[in-house]
Amino acid sequence: MRDHLKDVDYFITFIDEELSRIDRFALQLERGEIAPERIIPVKAVMHDLRLGILTAKYSKGDDLSLLEQEYLSILDEWEEVWVPDYYNKNLKMISLAVLFKVDSIFEAKIRQMLEKSGIKDWLLGFLLNSLDNNSDVLSKDMLFPKSFHTLQELVFGEGGIELLDRYLSKEWYNKDCGCYRAHKSRCNVYYGYWSFDAGAIAKILGLHDDSLKAKRYYPYDLVHY
Questions:
Q1: Are 128 and 114 spatial neighbours (Cβ–Cβ below 8 Å)?
Q2: 1-9 long-range CB contacts below 8 Å, 24 or more apart?
Q3: Which are the contacts of 48, defined by CB distance < 8 A and separation ≥ 6?
Q4: How far is CA 96 from the centre of its chain?
Q5: Most exposed: 48, 138, 194, 211, by fewest CB within 10 Å?
Q6: 27-78 per-position pLDDT tens digit
Q7: Cα end-to-end span (Å), the chain
């Protein structure tokens, strides 16, 4: 187990329920029961469910090599259901790309998706550039500077591991998060509060993060995968 808010049985139930939802959607698509204009939105929901399952499996403690293969499959299908304004998902997907060290083919595809959508964001650009050791100078402008300014401070050498600690302790999980207190819900909607973005930054910078090994929200083993 990597998560300490729920037990193994909870995550098994969560995963089974989400897989059942995906199967129902897939059957409806196969039978032609989805209106043409709804096909992509339905596929987008299925994609979100798969990403949630992946996160739940990480929380449950599943083997990282198996999760990597699952992630690559999700990444391969991402372009079809890409939503430019879905920032949190985009950040999560790109952070996982860094943590799993995807190859340049996937990096180029993601970059093309961002450029085609006209998205200019320092954090997404920095994460992407790390995948092919791109040293292009990026604008420091961010779409959500209030949420991620600490990560930018860290990258530009304005502090050390204590900044990442502060981000995880005081900034990552808060009442403005869409998933805030999900683990308290009567429904099975919680899959983990992992800060994959913090892990990706730590991996890129090669930070000595032993002090964060047991830190809540920090995906330590994935950073060192």
A1: yes
A2: 1/59, 1/60, 1/61, 2/58, 2/59, 2/60, 2/61, 2/192, 2/219, 2/221, 3/59, 3/60, 3/192, 4/216, 5/183, 5/190, 5/193, 6/59, 6/183, 6/190, 8/60, 8/61
A3: 89
A4: 6
A5: 211
A6: 999 999 999 999 999 999 999 999 999 999 999 999 999 999 999 999 999 9
A7: 17
